[in-house]
Amino acid sequence: MNFDAFHIMAKPIGPVCNLNCEYCYYLEKEKLYPADENWKMPENVLEKYVKEYIASQKVSEVVFSWQGGEPTLLGIDFFRKAIKFQKQYSNGKKIINTFQTNGVLLNDAWCDFLANNNFLVGLSIDGPREIHDKYRKMKGEQPTFKKVYGSLKLLKKHGVEFNTLTCVQRDNSYKAKEVYGFLKSEGSRFLQFIPIVERRAEPPAANGLFLVLPNYKGKAVVTDWSVEPLQYGKFLSEVFDEWVRNDVGEIYVNIFDLMLEAWYGMQPSLCVFRETCGNAMVIEHNGDIYSCDHYVYPEYKLGNIMESDISMIVNSKKQIEFGEAKKSTLPRYCLECEYKFACNGECPKHRFVKTPDGEEGLNYLCEGYKYFFSHIDVYMKFMANELRHQRPPANVMAWAKEKDLGFPSLNPGRNDPCPCGSGKKYKNCCGLNVKKNKDTH
User: Fold this and answer.
1) pLDDT > 90 fraction of the chain, expressed in percent and rounded
2) Which residue has the higher pLDDT, 422 or 253?
3) What CA–CA distance (Å, rounded) separates 157 from 391?
4) Residue of 126, 247, 288, 293 marked catalytic
């Protein structure tokens, strides 16, 4: 099996960052390169990466993702060189650049550059000031919200296309409406909510890293900033309740789009929810390629582009087996789950707890995902049905409000088919909560 198209997340400054976010899983990767003093990707590595990454893709559109650490620390000139190489080696393919930043160093010059070169910017922001500043601090513990908020305004001023990336951790997971309301009010129209889950080894592992893989055999505990499983599901559900009644078609929440793909009968397009993975790797500043952004550990190093061609590394037996293991190691509890089509065990990085019958490999977030999937099921079925009939999924907003009131305009009988299109009788589907909703209103 060879990948016709694949994704590599580039970390051209490695883990170097001007922030010291307590929950960051990447800062400690500096320990893997103890001799490095200059973390900037050398020009010859950058050129070879750009040239081979484009040439290896058997598609007409190639996406470059620049992350870190903090990529703005490299300066604008580094990315001017990257664009020069992209134009030189594009060979007629369309090139798209995405850029993830903490926003602290963005200014007018950066925003001009990003806008003029059509970069899609991901801005990391965890919510309003008191929520954001809980964990996202400078090296000297100074808060960062004021600078990040200013950068959000700059991106809008310069017309830079951007989305917001919000880490869902122990603290803000209890403030879903506040977080979503803030992002919405500040003009974010594309939102990502990423669960923060890490285990810390005591003492550190042999490689010096504290944050460990799911198969770590030593003593490790879930960090106190990691989101709790059920609470993550409740966070997503609270955001969904606001979105499904007010914002469908206007605001795009990544995980909701992915779930609609699943309920429509497609494989979700993001690796964490697909049956197999392996086509989303990461390249470090020196050209080392690892199996995944969350698997930057010595045992998951695939090679270096200065020693091997990218296509050989990407399509290596080691990487193919890594991707297939996501499916082949799924416990029976997951294989028999009614929501397997949507979850597929989620990311293997989070599979470190046991199933109810004692089998290894259950996802830490399982309880939360089941809560969330159950909560959105009837709405997803409605939206998927609208898509099949070539109608806009945004019709769900009016339908959801009708559902809240017990469908008074439709007045289905208890034994009639449910208006949601589930195929169940009304009394066994949306009618279950009608009395409660009527009492509420």
Assistant:
1) 87
2) 253
3) 35
4) 293
